[in-house]
Amino acid sequence: MPSSRGLQCFISLAARTLCTYPHRHPHQMPSAIIQPTAAHTATVIFAHGLGDEGESWRAAISGDYDYRKPGELTIPAHLPHVKWIFPDAPEQAVTANFGTRMPSWFDITNLPLQPGQNSNKVFEDDESMKNGAQIIHDLVQAEVKAGIPESRIVVGGFSQGGALALVTGLGSKDWRTKSSGDESKLAGIVVLSGWVPLREKFKSRISPHAKSIPVLWGHGTADAVIYHKVGEDSVELLQDQLGIVKHSAHDQLGTPGISFRSYERMGHASCKKEMEDLATFLGSVIPQQQIQNL
Question: Which is catalytic among the residues 223, 234, 259, 270?
């Protein structure tokens, strides 16, 4: 389990590549959870990055790393109706880290991802990507069975988890190992420091709902793991090839299409402003509902 550290530097892939990772059975999928403090009417499922665990993001969203002003609310306090699920990725060998076994949603052959790299080269493994997408889809369906409709569920992630969120939220059932069931239309997608994976296959596996789903995409301009330009190029691909609208930096968060936000001097991490934008986005796509007594 990672040690407590400031929000700006928590979840640094470079600092974790030599760590000893918690051993997990490949079919054992524990999750860190923040329970709602009001009537449960919405759920956020958030996938961590390569080599990390859900507990890191549970702590970050809970405000464990923050230095808040007196009376300043945490994100869960702003959204008391939301249940947060932070699943742990299965442990598997990662080619980019010399075959070391670590928590990973899918295998990736190269890191960092930089602009100008061979654009035709595939860095992600399709089979393990489908396994990861199936895990998130199963979590979504478990929430649906518990009474939360897909229109009140947001899927998000950081870095590798952000790439997985795109596949799960914008992709069709062809991204999953089980192709049964209807295509999902979620309330929204959150991509923090992520990228579009398997670019050559993404267009052919797009959901019919992709253009109507709000997406918040945050990226640090000083990111040296998934470069900021890689994020920009990914959004351009979705815009040019798939016709998904990209909003300006001044547009309201939470409308259909991609809201891309850059954070100056932020590396492969998160920051307070990004967390504020996250809270605003969620408040727009899954606002608190008034529960009427029958």
Answer: 223
Nearest to 109 by CA among 121, 119, 91, 120: 121
Please, what is the end-to-end C-alpha distance for the chain in angstroms?
45
Of the listed 52, 104, 268, 277, which one is catalytic?
268
**Per-residue model confidence as pLDDT tens digits over 25-57:** 444 457 899 999 999 999 999 999 999 999 999
Tokens, residue 98: 């010399």
Q: How far apart are CA 269 and CA 57, in angstroms?
A: 11
Beta carbons of 48 and 157 less than 8 angstroms apart: yes
Q: How far apart are CA 237 and CA 235, in angstroms?
A: 5
**Strands in the chain per DSSP E:** 31-34, 42-47, 82-87, 91-94, 100-103, 153-158, 188-192, 214-220, 246-247, 257-263
Euclidean distance between CA atoms 158 and 172, whole angstroms:
21
Catalytic residue among 56, 104, 128, 159: 159
Query: In the prediction, which pLDDT does 73 show?
Result: 84
Integer Cα distance of 73 and 62 in angstroms: 10
On whether the CB atoms of residues 136 and 164 are closer than 8 A, the answer is yes
Rounded Cα distance between 81 and 101, Å, is 37
223: annotated active-site residue:
yes
pLDDT at residue 192, as a whole number: 98
For 79-95, letters b (16+ CB in 10 Å) and e give: bebbbbbbbbbbbbebe
Strand partners, 45: 85, 155
Tokens 């699943």 identify what position?
A: 87
- Predicted pLDDT of residue 16: 38
Q: What's the pLDDT score for residue 226?
A: 96
Segments in the chain below pLDDT 70: 1-29, 66-68, 118-122, 174-183, 290-294
Q: What is the reported pLDDT for 193?
A: 98
